[in-house]
Amino acid sequence: MVLVWGVVIFAAVMRAFTGFGFALAAVPVFSQIMAPSEAVVLSASLTLAVSLLTRKTYWGESSLKPMIPMLLLALLGTLLGARLLMGLSPAQFQLWIGLAVVAASLVLSLYRPAQGARLPGGVWRAVAGAASGLLNGAFAIPGPPVVVYAVAAEPEPRRARALLMTFFLFSAVMALASYALAGLVTPQAPLLFALAFPAMYLGDKLGYYLFTRYGSRFYRRVAVAVLLAVGVTTTVRALLQLGAWNG
């Protein structure tokens, strides 16, 4: 639990500072110390709880209407992704997480929103929503497609953060419902949540404080650098495990 607390605090700071990054940072580490199903349920439940408790810090700063098609497609993707989760080994689970994180980090490092730019149109929203749902159901990591969609076109950190947090609130609901239907929510899940949530709340408070002071200058660089490090580490560990098993 000491390791879980440290990971949760770090990932919660990332989420509160940038609007994304909790699952990307936490699930790869969770998957090293618990079953994949427990890792994704814990991540989704922590995200949902803190999103509801802190909604006044982001709710209403981004329009909900453009998200509706994204959320509907994300729901379909989440249901499919939850089925895929049951067919993955722990090493495969970690490998796909690591590759998704690395890809998202590289894309975010190459694209920067221009001043006055508008969010992409309906086709890009649909693609982002469906891909996000698939990753959400399989790995509890809805972030990469929607993060790229938001930060590639939104120059204002506060609006980009609000869009992401609003989307991830609904994504967490979809993920938990899908896991429950798939029978992945075990009796141990509430205990893990209760033990980890104080760390989540503490990290959120610290991250929001840092965002209000430094977010406009550093939020993008910090997020990309940390997520890239997490993705590379997770991918290398998974490849080593797969190589050892094949050997």
TrEMBL record:
Entry-linked PANTHER family: MEMBRANE TRANSPORTER PROTEIN (PTHR30269:SF37), TRANSMEMBRANE PROTEIN YFCA (PTHR30269)
Keywords: Cell membrane, Membrane, Transmembrane, Transmembrane helix, Transport
Family in the record: Belongs to the 4-toluene sulfonate uptake permease (TSUP) (TC 2.A.102) family.
Membrane topology type: Multi-pass membrane protein
Membrane-spanning intervals of the chain: 66-87, 93-111, 162-185, 191-211, 218-240
Subcellular location: Cell membrane
Species this protein is from: Parahaliea maris
Protein name: Probable membrane transporter protein
GO cellular component: plasma membrane
